[in-house]
Structures are given as structure tokens and as C-alpha cells.
Amino acid sequence: MKLAFFDAKPYDKPSFDRYGKENGFEIKYFETKLNEDTVELAAGYDAVCVFVNDTVNAAVIDRLCEFGVGIVALRCAGFNNVDMKYAFGRIHVLRVPAYSPYAVAEHTVAMLLTSIRRIHKAYIRTRDFNFSLAGMTGFDLHGKTVGVIGTGRIGRVFIDICRGFGMKVLAYDKYHAEGLDNGDTVKYVELDELFGGSDIISLHCPLTEETYHVIDESAISKCKRGVVILNTSRGALVDAEALLAGIKSRKIGAACLDVYEEEADFFFEDFSGHILEDDTLARLISMPNVIVTSHQAFLTEDALSNIAQTTVQNIVDFVRLGQCENEVCYRGGRAEDCKSGKCF
């Protein structure tokens, strides 16, 4: 199996080398992202492995098919960067539905605690031997209400952590997780109730037409004054301009972002010493109550190993069995995991 691996980073290689070697894979690592300009690099390979900022649109899919590439292996859970409607019937798309929900959920809580207890500011101050506590007052999580949008694997782990802090949970998901709502500390509600009743809102849902800009000007207007917004899922869940306006008006008390709507041009790269051309991102980073990390919530040794193992196993299963339970199909107007065998 010859695999073209796009948007490769140093931390990707050890695990993929290990599991690839165990399964007889020949992997070529390309640092460039997959898009219409770089798709020619995939010629001569059986499959391509892509990440969140690679572009798998109709033009790319056509070229991959011309080259005889039969599999797009996503080493991530989300697939909004793939034109799934166009891919159906042309190329097989496999994904990693759960690499480590703990990694993402724990990073979300780490960002929250860092923000509300001013840990990032304290770190900088004490390194300058400034031990003043002025401006360092935070608030307890115990007794607060957190709104969780998306109750899949990551969302449920995040909820468990929040319950450990003694928080109440308002949850929203189109598909309710069985047994999660206990009618007391965890309740499923509609979005408007979640917006109005939450001290903190955390996003753990996929990016779809329905969830695009789920946090927008209208949603923010329904929130409590001082609400904290957490996003470790997909950047376009949040309207960045509306978020910035909400912060400037003091409606939003703080924001913790591991993802950003236009991140593909910046995240995973070193722009220190350069002028950041995205004014909205630059202004968000400049805000004292905003924490931005560069899509690193997944980045633990455990998660990297799980990602590589599942990605390689997905390809092996498909080649040997002609099917893979982690294949993503386009059916009935939406993309969904295939549990019944071949998609076409």
C-alpha cells in the first residue's frame, strides 16, 4: 500500500511509521497541504492521508480518481473539508471518529481554568518578579452552569469533568445521548434556553450547515452578560466578527479558542517575526480576556498513537475486507458513517 501523507508534521511521523511498517505501508510524507495546486503529488499512490486544513473539493477528487487513488484517509474526526456529496460514488472517505475524547475535553477545561483564574497572566507576572494580585480575581466553577453544544464522545467527557467541579449542565444535541439527561444536574434543552441560562458555553459539535455560526450576533444577544465561550471543535461554529464585537461590548466575558474560522492560512505554521494579515485574529489575540491555541487540543501522545493506529487500520480493513466501519457516506442529503458495508 502506497500512501501519500499530506500536511505532515514531525509529531505525525513516529506513530505512522510504526503502524505503517507493521502493515507493509510505504508512506511518503509531504509537508505541503493537499489542494488543487498540490494534488499532482498524489500520482502513483493508492491512498492519500489528509488533515483538517487539506482541501478535498470536486477538482481534487477528480484528479485523485484520474490517478487511481481509491481512498481518502482522514486522520481526524471532522470531514467538513471534504466535498462529501461529490465524493459519493467516486472515492472512499475514511475517518477517525474518536482518537482521544479525553485529550480534547481536558484541553478545553485547561483553557477555561487558565482564563478564569488568570494563570496565563500570573505566569508572565511572576517571571518578572511581580507578585501583585491586582486584576487577578477569578470565579469558582462550582455551582456555575455550563452549556454544552454537542454531546458526542468529547462532549460527554467534558460534561463528566464539569460535573466533577460541581457544575450544572445544559446540553443541546440534535440526537440525545441515552441516559445523559438526569433531569437535575444535566438537562437537554433547546438552544435559546442554553444561551440564556449558561455562564459558560462550550462547543463540541461537528461543522454542518445547521451548526455553521451557531454562535453569531443573535446567539450572543441571548447570552448572559459576561458569558465565557469555549471552542475546541471547528472554527466556523463561531462568527469571529460577532465574537469580537461581543468582547468589545463586554457582553462576552472571555473566549478560549483552539480553532478559528480562517485558521487554514495560519495554524500549524510559525509566523513569529511576520505581520499577521488577518485583522480579526490579530485583534482577538490582542484582547486580554481571549486565549488562542493553534488547534492543539488533540495533541497528546495517546491521541497521536490512536490516530495513526485507526487511520492505518481503516485502510487495511477496506483493502482486505472491502469495507470499513469508519467510512463516511453521503446519504439522504447528509454525510454519515457507513455501518452497512460498501458505499458504492
- What's the overall geometry? globular
**Class computed from helices, strands and strand pairing:** alpha/beta
Question: What gyration radius follows from the Cα positions, in whole Å?
Answer: 21 Å
Strand content: 15-25%
Helicity range = 25-40%
| N to C succession of SSEs | EHEEHEHEHHEHEEHEHEHEHEHEE
What is the count of DSSP helices, taking H or I runs of 4+ residues? 11
Biggest sheet, spatial arrangement of strands: 2-1-3-4-5-13-14
Largest sheet: 7 strands, mixed
Distance between the termini: 21 Å
Tell me the total number of β-strands.
Answer: 14
What integer is the average pLDDT? 95
Concise synopsis of the structure shown:
With about 350 residues, the chain is of the alpha/beta class. The protein has helices at about 15-20, 60-65, 85, 100-115, 120-125, 155-165, 190-195, 215-220, 240-250, 280-285, 300-320; strands spanning about 1-5, 25-30, 45-50, 70-75, 90-95, 145-150, 170, 185-190, 200-205, 225-230, 250-255, 290, 325-330, 335.
